[in-house]
Amino acid sequence: MSDCAVKRIIFTADEIGRRVGELAASLAADYPPGELATVAILKGSFVFVADLARQLSAHDVHLAIDFLTLASYGRGSVSPGRVRIEEDIALNVRDRDVLLVDDILDTGHTLRTAVDLLRGHGARSVRTCVLLDKAARRQVDIHADYVGFPCPDVFVVGYGLDYAGRFRELPYVGAISMPGGKCSGG
Ligand code: IMP
Ligand code: MG
């Protein structure tokens, strides 16, 4: 694991910054000015949602934000598709239009679990916004309403995304590999 390194940059910091600005403009066209109830999925989305919040404030949309901590069991081989709720939200979303934010939509189990949870809490509507969409890996019939970039089917890190807890602080999104092979798991 310690040999694991970023092999190539997939989305640069500039590209991400521009795209987040465009997403904020789209969201501001769809939601009225004022407060927008937002739930971001931890840990991966903390960088994305922070940039999105600041871009949206320029459009007079202000996030009333809370966080939902989810963890997937056994990415890869063991019990794929099981998502554990580690910490639920405290924000009252009953009868509110909620924006759900995540870093990456992969198999879809995480987003499905989060949407169902928010509906269970009485949200009037739930729209989803992800920075990256790995459509090729989908196992659940779900799509995001707002997508930053379609993502190739490689394991990516940076801009909040980790491999075994590392690389979240990188300003870009990159693919990882180890000498003589690729990093597995995560
Ligand atoms: P899903 O439940 O398979 O859609 O996975 C979504 C979650 O898995 C994301 O919130 C990420 O935390 C994580 N994930 C999926 N693909 C990657 C990746 O390529 N790099 C880092 N994390 C990933
Ligand atoms: Mg995540």
Describe the structure.
Helices cover 23% and strands 34% of the residues. The protein has 186 residues and is α/β, with parallel strands linked by helices. It has one domain: Rossmann fold, CATH 3.40.50. The protein contains three helices and nine strands. The protein is globular, with a radius of gyration of 16 Å. The protein has a six-stranded mixed β-sheet with strand order 4-3-2-5-6-7. A three-stranded antiparallel β-sheet has the order 1-9-8. Bound molecules: inosinic acid and magnesium ion. Magnesium ion is lined by residues 41, 44, 102-103. Magnesium ion binds at residues 41, 44, 102-103.
The helix tally amounts to 3
Mean pLDDT: 93
Q: What's the structural domain tally? A: 1
Q: How are strands sequenced across the largest beta sheet?
A: 4-3-2-5-6-7
Q: What's the architecture, going by CATH?
A: 3-Layer(aba) Sandwich
Assign the CATH topology.
Rossmann fold
Give the N-to-C terminal Cα separation.
10 Å
Order of helices and strands: EHEHEEEHEEEE
Major sheet description: 6 strands, mixed
